[in-house]
TrEMBL record:
It comes from Streptomyces bathyalis. It is a multi-pass membrane protein. Signal peptide: none annotated. Coiled coil: none annotated. InterPro entries: Diverse_Substrate_Transporter (IPR051258), EamA_dom (IPR000620), EmrE-like (IPR037185). It is found in: Cell membrane. One of its GO terms (cellular component) is plasma membrane. This is EamA family transporter. Residues 132-262 form the EamA domain. The keyword Oxidoreductase does not apply.
Amino acid sequence: MVIGSAMSLQFGSAVAATLFPRAGALGVVALRLVFSALLMLAVCRPRLRGHSRTDWAAVTGLGVALGTMNTLFYQAIDRIPLGAAVTLELLGPLVLSVVGSRRLLSLLWAGLALAGVYLLGSSGFGSIDFAGAAFALAAGAMWVAYILFNSRTGARFPKADGLALAMALAALLSAPLGVASAGRALLDPVTLGLGAAVAVLSSGVPYTLELFALRRLPAATFALLMSLMPVAAASAGFLVLGQRLELPELVAIALVIVASMGAVRTPPAARTRGAGPPVP
């Protein structure tokens, strides 16, 4: 289920990239978020009343993180190969895991990740747009914000209600940008149909599979499997977009994946009551 979720998400991103000539990156982001919001609101039917300001603050943070993360990521895959974009984006959660662990072993995973990025840059960035790489790294930073706000929202709302509300907010934020960028192109039936397919592949199917998977897998195992996301992205980029990665770039992706898995498997340092900051 986790692997199916990753493949669905990345193939959805690949299909989204084929829509860029029709509606542009901002237009496709708007279509994905609007259709995803409608889908989640219809399924979850969240209540709007009875929530505190703190609840709405968490939802707002999650909605802004969702909208910004998707916008930055689609700007990235409009400029660089999908596999490279997801590899760079993965650095955000990886940094969060390394910082949260506070163990000496975490420096090894950080070193592997940096080696992978260096190898990816020295081998592939000669033909890769630097702005695209910057967008991917920024999307990774927003992925960290998404993780933090998603945790807060999940603790304050039942089921996926908070996520549905956050998705609606993200759609409201992205829609004006999409309309301003793509205009009437968003009303094309083919574009609308593919936009709906992207929403299902990138949101509906992954969220459903992950929901069922988390009922059967420990959270650490789930996070470990999600580290394989760049493999799914590279596969989708090759099969759908015809994007080929050379051997050094594949090794770079492998290094980042190993670093991510290692960071997930490294337990955080134990805190001693009454002591100062933990020592690695």
